[in-house]
Amino acid sequence: MYGDGTMINQVCLEFQVLKKILSSHNRVQPIRVFDWNNWVPKKVAIVAWRAEMERLPTKCALSNRNINVQNRFCSLCGDFDETSEHLLVACHFAQVIWKNIAYWCKIPLIIAFDIKDLLVLHGFSPGSRKRKKTLYAIILVAIWSIWKMRNEVTFGQAIPNTTKVLDEVKSMAFLWVKNRSKEVTLSWENWSRFSIFS
Ligand SMILES: [Zn+2]
Question: Which of 29, 73, 104, 160 has the fewest CB atoms found within 10 Å of its own CB?
Fold first, then answer.
């Protein structure tokens, strides 16, 4: 079983408060160049690339462009404004995904305040260059998969399902990393335990 979704609103509120405190310190953010990863298809990385620039067609983004949307509430939790940052970072749905990915990939709990934090964390994780690149690929696939689930809920009446996203992240990232890295010896068994490229 994957993690539960309790204390949902509490977590989201704490996130907002923490974010406010941090931004009040006026951190200067240098312009970041997006780091592409050729172990995942371009269409996958493009979602993260657009998300970081807040250029995904979320309800808030559409509404801000005067496009008529029924409401601005997040498609996955229904409680907060739907921005890229909310959907992929603060939303309890995303937090369950990140918590389980951290557990699977044997890294500390992922504490992200914005999308950039998700996109750089592989650089601080231990292990070889290939292991970092794999972790980055997994993060990109997870962002793509959460956005895909959001679209299925918004346009196809699907019910938000963290297990489905986690299964998809694990299986699709395995297929792409194995084929694109040309690591023919990479087995599903080792992948499932994240015993790779140590
Ligand atoms: Zn949400």
Answer: 29
Q: Report if residue 198 sits inside a domain.
A: no
Number of domains in the chain: 1
Task: List Cα–Cα distances, 187 to 68, 118, 134, 143, 184, in angstroms.
Answer: 48, 26, 14, 24, 8
Q: What whole-number distance in Å separates Cα of residue 154 and Cα of residue 148?
A: 10
**Residue (of 38, 77, 15, 84) closest to 179 by Cα position:** 38
pLDDT of residue 146: 98
User: Tell me: the pLDDT tens digits for 170-191?
Assistant: 999 999 999 999 988 999 999 9
> Is 96 within a domain?
yes
Centre of ligand 1 to C-alpha 77, Å, is: 4
CA 82 to ligand 1 center in whole angstroms = 7
Q: Report the separation in Å between the CA atom of 27 and the middle of ligand 1, taken as the mean of its atom positions.
A: 26
Cβ-contact 44, 175 below 8 angstroms: no
Overall pTM surpassing 0.70 (yes/no):
yes
